[in-house]
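Work Package 3 (structural annotation) set out to generate three-dimensional models for the target panel prioritized at the project kickoff. During this period the team completed the workflow that converts sequence records into discrete structure tokens, so that structures can be stored uniformly alongside our sequence database. As a representative example, we reproduce one entry of 159 residues exactly as it appears in the project archive.
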Amino acid sequence: MDMPKGTHLTAYKGGVRAIDDTDGSTIATILPGTVKAADGTTRKINVSVDGNKVTQIIDGVTGSTIEGTVTPPVFSVGTADPAPVGAASAKTALAQKTALAMRTASSDKDGNKSDRMACIGQKVTTGIIGDFFGAIEAGGAGAMAGALGGLAAGIVLCK
């Protein structure tokens, strides 16, 4: 994942944080969802960061594939951690997490509206939705990739 100049990703609580290199502040935090395997087992997704390489690891899975349902990542813009979404059916999880993400993205650490942060939040949400539904058709786990792509786009495009 190539991040825009002046920013980098770091591992944080099983997910990633985007950091502004000029002052060390947090731009955004993205925490991965979970996978409910076809056998009914819920498996946690963790993310590792090594330079520009971001890898998703599904706990307890051997091999390179798993069948099941993926819940999308949650995120926050600014220094706050994403607020967890309560248990929800697979059918409503995406809508609830996206609504939460959009609410969270509208405020910075002081609770003040920030046009730039709201714009970045919208880009992350768009990336999650686009890649989540693309992944359903393609059979991959694209929601996290979409979140990261949306984050990078937001950092560049949102002024």
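The two ends are 21 Å apart (CA to CA).
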